[in-house]
Design brief:
This protein is mainly β. It has a domain of about 210 residues. The protein contains three helices and 22 strands. The strands form two sheets. The chain has an 18-stranded antiparallel β-barrel. The protein is globular. The two termini are about 30 Å apart.
Length: about 425
């Protein structure tokens, strides 16, 4: 136990010494941050965040080759977790081609707070939206090539083995409501085997123009969030369905889409959308033998960013459409979501106030995330914020009892 408690201090001391040792090495740099964060539920004052983070970013460059590693050490609720190697890859570059091999995050899309064409990297949703957005995205082991011809870019990514989205643990604050009429019994998830034929493939074309940016993408991949296949049912005479057994299944899908953004004077306009060939939507187990139906789906967003009187605004409208919808599906044929972000800086831009809001009109539910950040110095940042859930049902309303507030400090080096 004592060794575990000493580990963060030992690593911190090492990190403090390493920059001095590397300073004389040409092409080598090290930076990162140490952060402490604590938060409580407003309902009963119990902790829902209690963590210390050490995030180290090391890069080395030698001519046309480079190396990058991002190890992260977490201490949560008094327990030091295993060292997480968030990214570790090697780069090779030429005049017109870049090649990246290793564990990496792949970021696509232009939407804020939603993932539409950003389908390459899975997510860590074990704590819902509590972590910063950059921490929600997981890295994948991949081979990624990017070619450039003037303002045009061509990208191809091959992922040799599958990495799933991390879901909340059963019984945690963030465990979502299950879409079943009775409490299910869960079997072990059915994961794709690590084999050559189970690889994932993604391609993207991009254009960076003077007046607008354009992106087209496509992918043949495994859905990183599983569908729940009903593999057993129990019926009680006179009562009906009293028990079911379900198996989380990951399955192949195909997607195609694109995004565009343009500046019209001081206003940024953007749109993004994707079509998915065969998503699995949960439904009434009495109607569907496996508890789901495969349907094509479309998801799109239109948004704008602008500034008025020193305030920055970002507005988005998102719509999810299930094609060939059936009444027995739990998902509605159309689901609308809006997002609004408002931000303003004060005190010579050292103090920033921001509010990010998700709003779903039917059923009415929302998440409001206010945050205040003070840049106390070039390296020290103090912050405070909250998570406020509105409604009694829906993606956000189901967490109505999880309203919380937090504060913290971040030291960058």
């Amino acid at each position: 136990m004592r060794a575990k408690r000493l580990l963060p201090f030992a690593v911190s001391a090492a990190v403090a010494l390493i920059p001095a040792l590397l300073a004389a090495q040409e092409g080598v740099s090290l930076n990162g941050y140490a952060r402490t964060k604590a938060g409580t539920l407003l309902e009963d004052g119990s902790y829902f965040i209690g963590e210390n983070t050490l995030d180290v970013r090391l890069s080395m460059n030698a001519g046309d080759a480079g190396f990058y590693a991002n190890p992260v050490l977490y201490e949560r609720e008094g327990t030091v977790e295993a060292l997480d190697l968030r990214e570790a890859y090697v780069d090779f570059s030429s005049e017109w081609l870049d090649l990246r091999l290793g564990k990496q995050q792949v970021i696509w899309g232009k939407a804020d707070g939603v993932f539409i064409t950003d389908i390459v990297s899975p997510k860590d949703l074990s704590r819902f939206l509590v972590p910063d957005f950059e921490e929600l995205r997981l890295a994948v082991t991949a081979v990624r090539s990017q070619a450039y011809v003037g303002a045009h870019g061509f990208e191809f990514t091959w992922i040799p083995w599958f990495t799933p989205t991390v879901a909340p643990e059963t019984g945690s604050l963030w465990a979502p409501a299950m879409p079943f009429p009775v409490q299910p019994t869960f079997e072990n998830p059915d994961l794709p085997e690590r084999a050559l034929e189970n690889g994932e493939y993604f391609a993207r074309y991009s254009y960076m123009g003077e007046s607008f940016d354009l992106m087209l993408m496509g992918g043949w991949f495994w859905e990183d969030t599983p569908a729940f296949a009903v593999t057993g049912k129990t019926f009680t005479p006179g009562v009906g369905l009293t028990g079911i057994t379900v198996t989380p299944e990951y399955y192949r899908n195909t997607a195609a889409g694109g995004a565009i953004s343009a500046a019209v004077g001081p206003v940024i306009l953007r749109a993004e959308g994707a079509w998915y060939a065969n998503r699995r939507f949960q439904g009434d187990p009495a109607e569907y033998e496996l508890g789901y139906a495969e349907k094509s789906a479309v998801q799109y967003v239109i948004g704008t960013d602008f500034a008025v009187a020193g305030y920055s605004f970002g507005l988005q409208f998102i719509q999810d459409i299930v094609l060939d919808h059936e009444d027995a599906l739990l998902e509605e044929a159309f689901q609308n979501t809006g997002t609004l972000v408002v931000a303003k800086s004060f005190l010579a831009e050292s103090l920033t106030a921001e509010v990010f809001t998700y709003l779903v009109p039917d059923p009415m539910n929302a998440l409001v995330k206010p945050k205040l950040t003070w840049d106390a110095s070039d390296s020290l940042e103090l912050f405070a914020g909250a998570y406020l859930f509105i409604g009694d049902e829906g993606d956000f309303g189901q967490y109505n009892d999880n309203d919380g507030a937090y504060l913290g400090a971040k030291f960058s080096f």
